[in-house]
Design goal:
Distance between the termini: 64 Å
Number of helices: 5
Number of domains: 2
Order of helices and strands: HEEHEEHEEHEEHE
Strand content: 15-25%
Strand order of the largest sheet: 3-6-5-7-8
Length: 174
């Protein structure tokens, strides 16, 4: 009985998450969902191009664009997740866009794992049913950066907003 207890999760305050295991050379402490999402991001091969005809599974798929995407394709992604918007993170230095996650921080982590610098990443939302200035919303928790003078969820620096829009024009086509 003692050996089976050595590998059982230790419940902290009646919860099984986070999980700590006894009897191992080091303590393992992680959120299962965070761990699983990192594994999935590393080992699932994502399609090179998203098509509106593609039968998407429910929920976001998280990808870094390697080909331009159309507004119709963004609409298909939106319908698969939030309904009216697609979350995205733009790397203004590498001129990349990561799309389609429940949290901008997941896209931020995806780009950081891919070699992006934290200071270059800005969160936005696409609204594929809207046009003009309403198509892009500069709003994300990852944008709050007091050390860089950005005190809100928006992108306060006009120069950075222009860089973001330039990257979007490269990757998002009508």
């Amino acid at each position: 009985m003692a050996s089976s207890q050595a590998n059982e999760p230790v419940k902290e305050h009646g919860r099984a998450d986070p999980v700590s295991y006894r009897g191992q050379s080091r303590e393992v402490n992680f959120s299962f969902l965070s761990f699983a999402s990192r594994i999935l991001r590393r080992y699932i091969v994502l399609p090179e191009h998203i098509s509106p005809d593609l039968n998407l599974t429910s929920g976001p798929i998280m990808l870094i664009l390697n080909k331009p995407v159309t507004v119709a394709e963004l609409k298909a992604l939106a319908e698969n997740s939030f309904g009216e918007l697609v979350k995205a993170v733009v790397d203004v230095d590498r001129e990349l866009i990561a799309l389609d996650a429940e949290l901008s921080s997941d896209l931020q982590a995806l780009l950081l794992d891919d070699g992006s610098a934290q200071a270059s990443l800005w969160g936005i939302n696409f609204y594929p049913d809207l046009t003009g200035e309403d198509f892009v919303e500069f709003d994300s928790m990852i944008n709050v950066r007091p050390s860089r003078g950005n005190l809100s969820r928006g992108v306060e620096d006009e120069h950075i907003r222009r860089k973001i829009l330039a990257v979007i024009s490269r990757w998002v086509k009508p």
